[in-house]
Structures are given as C-alpha cells and as structure tokens.
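Weekly sync, protein design subgroup
Attendees: M.S., D.O., the rotation student, P.L. (late)

Item 1: inverse folding check
M.S. brought a backbone from last month's batch and wanted to see whether the design step gives back something sensible before we order anything. D.O. pointed out we never logged the input encoding, so this time it goes straight into the notes. Structure tokens as presented (80 positions):
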C-alpha cells in the first residue's frame, strides 16, 4: 500500500493525493483538483498518464504500473 503524504503550507493548508485511508474532511473543507488522468489509448494499446492540458507524462501496457507511477510522481513519495 502506498503511504499517504500530507504537507502543510505556511498558512496551514494541507495538500495530498486524495485517499480514503483517513477522513480528510477532519482537516477542514475539501477542495479537489484533478492533476492527471490515466486512460487507455486504443491506437497505441497502452495506458497513458496525462496532465489536464493533454501532455503525456508516462505510458505503459499495465494500468497498475501507470497508477503506481502517478502516485509516486505526484505524492512526492520518491523523496520520502
């Protein structure tokens, strides 16, 4: 299981990848922003992680590997 990493800025705002491991609403009102999508590309026959502007960040034939890459990339888990 991937760790849940929560960071707080100088004004006390928490930031993390959404998870249901804990009830994040106990920290206050939630504001959610999608930072990427993982979708299948039928022409290329692989899964792709893309930014909202369409920029390709990562691709692989295995969806689970794309999801793991996405979590590590955006959670800062590589520096934990």
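Designed sequence read out in the meeting:
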């Amino acid at each position: 299981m991937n760790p849940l990493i929560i960071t707080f800025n100088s004004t006390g705002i928490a930031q993390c990848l959404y998870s249901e491991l804990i009830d994040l609403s106990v920290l206050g009102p939630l504001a959610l922003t999608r930072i990427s999508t993982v979708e299948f590309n039928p022409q290329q026959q692989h899964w792709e992680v893309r930014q909202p502007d369409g920029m390709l960040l990562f691709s692989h034939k295995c969806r689970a590997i794309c999801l793991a890459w996405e979590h590590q990339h955006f959670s800062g888990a590589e520096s934990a």
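Discussion: The helical segments are 63-75. The beta strands are 7-8, 14-15, 37-41, 46-50, 56-60.
Action: P.L. to compare against the previous round before Friday.
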